[in-house]
Amino acid sequence: MSQAKVFFQDLGCMSYQEAWDLQEKVLRAGTDLKLLNRNHPQSKVLPENHLFFVEHPHVYTIGKSGSLDNLLLTREEMEERGIEFFKINRGGDITYHGPGQLVGYPILDLEQFKPDLHLYLRNIEEAAILTLADYGIEAGRIDGFTGVWIDVAGDDPRKILAIGVRCSRWITMHGFAFNVNSDLSYFDNIIPCGIGDKGVTSIQAELGRFIEMEEVKEKMKRHLAELFDFEYAVN
Questions:
Q1: Using one digit for the tens of pLDDT, what is the confidence trace for 47-72?
Q2: How large is the average pLDDT for residues 210-220?
Q3: CA 13 to chain centre
Q4: Of the candidates 46, 58, 76, 224, which lies 20 to 30 Å from 132 by C-alpha distance?
Q5: Is the pLDDT of residue 192 over 80?
Q6: Which residues contact 230 (CB under 8 A, 6 or more apart)?
Q7: Could you give the residue numbers annotated as active site?
Q8: Could you give the C-alpha distances from 129 to 125, 126, 140, 160, 207, in angstroms and in order?
């Protein structure tokens, strides 16, 4: 069986709404195609797989099961500070996106890989763990929590990568937020992911220097391709 192909696009800096609309458009095309395949199996065409990288202007998003109690600002205060807010259709609670953070949106048909959402999440985490290891940073997982953490067994566990996904007909959307050069003060206005007793960090904070975002992107792209066993399509 040949490797699955994934179309990669770096969206640069894009508003959250615009990126969300793009994801919904690609997801809908994939789910519509799967429905067509089910009704006409003789003309089966596989949905395209995509990986989008983006940085967003300051925004807080909260998932379907999230609690507004974890947002510590009023709408007026967010407007004054130029922060957007969205209730969205992913799992998970509240999180922050902003400049200096690598946001990845894999829109993958898991039936072309392995239809296992748990494995999907673990592969994303592992890609970040391997990327951090490339910088000499030891990271890992904490039982019961999705994402990647620093100082897992210590007294000061700090989250560096958050994940929130939606899956429809085994096609994923939304994805991960990797703190590279993030302004961590924006996390002070929320209880990140609804977890009040653990902190957040970034690669910059851990190493004490600015990190080249393009370098992190290339490392994450490579590790994701290796872990999911796909190759990037040529547009």
A1: 999 999 999 999 999 988 788 888 88
A2: 98
A3: 15
A4: 58
A5: no
A6: 3, 4, 5, 6, 49, 113, 224
A7: 193
A8: 6, 5, 6, 10, 15
